[in-house]
Amino acid sequence: MLANRKIVIIGAGHVGSHCAYALAIQGICDEIVLVDKDRTKAKSHSMDIADSVSFFNSSVIVRCGDYSDCKDADIIVISAGVPRLPGQTRLDVLDGSVECVRDIVSNLNKIEIKGIIITITNPADIIADFVRKATGLPKNRVFSTGTSLDTARMRRTVADLCNIAPQSVIGFAMGEHGDSSMVPFSNLTIFGKNYKHLKEENPERFGRLSEKVITDQTHMRGMDIIEGKGSTEFGIGTALADMAKAVLMDEHRILPASTLLEGEYGQTNVHAGVPCIIGRNGIEQIIELKLTDEELKQFENSCNVIKQHMVE
């Protein structure tokens, strides 16, 4: 009999509840536990999501719980924090999010954590670094979704500009999950071909591709959503579910994640979004893309932004 695949989500707000829903409808795990200071909210969300499971080919259990559930969790998701308001950057919520996560870590440190911690609280890279240091867990077991969502937004933008499926766009956003993230365009391919070659061969379809437009939309799409409806939730919920699937199914799949760099891309002692092989043990390997000198400089600048805001 297979072991029970269990995910605990700490923070049952907009983001945490949508993470739970994305996990539930895809049947990625067997048990989802929501933990929140507002136990009534966590219980209500768990009941609502459990009702939705009745319509799918899934037997996942969704319930409210507490920190003791983290003892045997395969994955602990930290989603609690201070939400971004219109006009704010992710860095603007740093102080409030750190205080919130500091309380969470104090509770986690009372038990033995055997699983993997994935953080999605903003600012994502700084919070991942803080949680890793505060828990003392090895770097492969504490990381953030990082630039997963930035990558999705980049691919979506490219797809919209040339009217193709985003699944046909292969590339990554790297660095900070934020306004300094960069796209290594030298590695961006569509249908396996460098996008610049496609622009030359078929300007009618691919001529609208612009590095500035793609970068700007990657940075601004999140704020556009927040200004329109107050929060982002569906995209990050699905990004988390996709990463959790790579862990639980031991897929050894390459995904962007914010992990500790120890010399990769010339950076040390900083969490930043880079392509990683992810499997049952978390981060198995960091993939080092060949970047141009200008791209390395852009990545360094993004890492410097993260370093300037790191906390103990």
What does this molecule look like?
With 312 residues, this protein is α/β, with parallel strands linked by helices. It has 2 domains: 6-144, NAD(P)-binding Rossmann-like Domain (Rossmann fold); 148-307, L-2-Hydroxyisocaproate Dehydrogenase, Chain A, domain 2 (Alpha-Beta Complex). Helix content is 42%, strand content 19%. The strands form 3 sheets. It has a 6-stranded parallel beta sheet, sandwiched between helices. Helix 1 packs parallel to helix 2, helix 3 (94-108) runs parallel beside helix 4 and helix 5 crosses helix 8. It is globular, with a radius of gyration of 19 Å. It starts with 5 loop residues before the first strand and ends in a 5-residue tail after the last helix. Belongs to the LDH/MDH superfamily. LDH family. It is found in: Cytoplasm.
